[in-house]
């Protein structure tokens, strides 16, 4: 096999692995969670997962993973596992609700939202400023209406924030390319109805800026890891 063919084969394997890592678990059927993660880390396990996914969604890998190669470098989320992608999605939802969350002052309401979302997410909503200056009043009002619909139902609140995050992320992907939004939708159990790009609340560059920050952090971690490996004794 030539070097070029070997390189392409390696890239296809990596792209297939990334897709399986980022795929919503429901595509793999009734496989127990305890077996899912070990299966993702072995060649045999990945083949089993791929066959299961293809049975449930035959068009999943068609025509092949190479259609996403053009974005391998610029769209770092293509290489994220499910856990990281879901965490990032919730962050987007929290940020989009930030203007409404920051004006909650009644003590019991604050405690409810903080307990439902977790301390880190609540702090993030209070400190992060996606908008330069004051956010549009329409965004705050839409967020307040969403919070009102959820009432004191913690599960409904978390579900609504995750849904907002999915809309923001898929909307970003749509603006990049429809193929990217198709790829991203595979990561969600309930992807939002598309198109999403006109339904987003966050400023246009917010998601791109956050992804760039994630990529920069990954780069620093990789440099530190390589430096530690070089310094470790043979």
Structural account:
This protein has 234 residues and is mainly α. The protein has helices at residues 3-22, 33-40, 43-56, 82-101, 107-117, 119-127, 137-150, 154-176, 178-185, 206-231. Helix content is 65%, strand content 0%. The protein is globular, with a radius of gyration of 20 Å.
Task: Name the descriptors.
mainly alpha, 234 residues
Round the mean pLDDT to the nearest integer and report it.
Answer: 83
Assembly status: single chain
Estimated structural class:
mainly alpha
Order of helices and strands: HHHHHHHHHH
* Cα end-to-end separation: 33 Å
Secondary structure topology:
Layout lengths: L2 H20 L10 H8 L2 H14 L25 H20 L5 H11 L1 H9 L9 H14 L3 H23 L1 H8 L20 H26 L3
Helix pairs in contact: 2-3, 4-6, 4-7, 4-8, 5-6, 5-8, 8-9
Describe what is shown at a glance:
The chain is mostly helical and 234 residues long. The chain contains ten helices and no strands.
């Amino acid at each position: 096999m030539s070097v070029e063919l070997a390189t392409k084969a390696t890239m296809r394997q990596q792209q297939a692995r990334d897709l399986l890592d980022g795929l919503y678990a429901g595509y793999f059927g009734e496989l127990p969670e305890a077996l899912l993660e070990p299966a993702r880390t072995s060649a045999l396990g990945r083949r089993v997962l791929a066959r299961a996914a293809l049975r449930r969604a035959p068009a999943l890998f068609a025509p092949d993973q190479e259609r996403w190669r053009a974005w391998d470098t610029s769209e770092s989320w293509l290489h994220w596992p499910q856990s990281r992608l879901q965490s990032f999605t919730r962050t987007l939802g929290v940020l989009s609700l930030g203007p409404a969350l920051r004006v909650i002052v009644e003590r019991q309401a604050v405690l409810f939202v903080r307990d439902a979302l977790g301390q880190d997410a609540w702090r993030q909503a209070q400190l992060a400023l996606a908008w330069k200056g004051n956010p549009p009043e329409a965004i705050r009002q839409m967020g307040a209406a969403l919070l009102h619909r959820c009432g004191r139902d913690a599960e409904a609140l978390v579900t609504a924030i995750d849904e907002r995050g999915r809309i923001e992320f898929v909307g970003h992907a749509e603006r990049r390319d429809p193929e990217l939004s198709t790829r991203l939708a595979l990561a969600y159990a309930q992807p939002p109805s598309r198109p999403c790009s006109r339904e987003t609340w966050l400023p246009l560059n917010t998601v791109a800026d956050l992804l760039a920050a994630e990529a920069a952090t990954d780069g620093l971690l990789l440099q530190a890891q390589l430096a530690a490996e070089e310094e470790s004794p043979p």
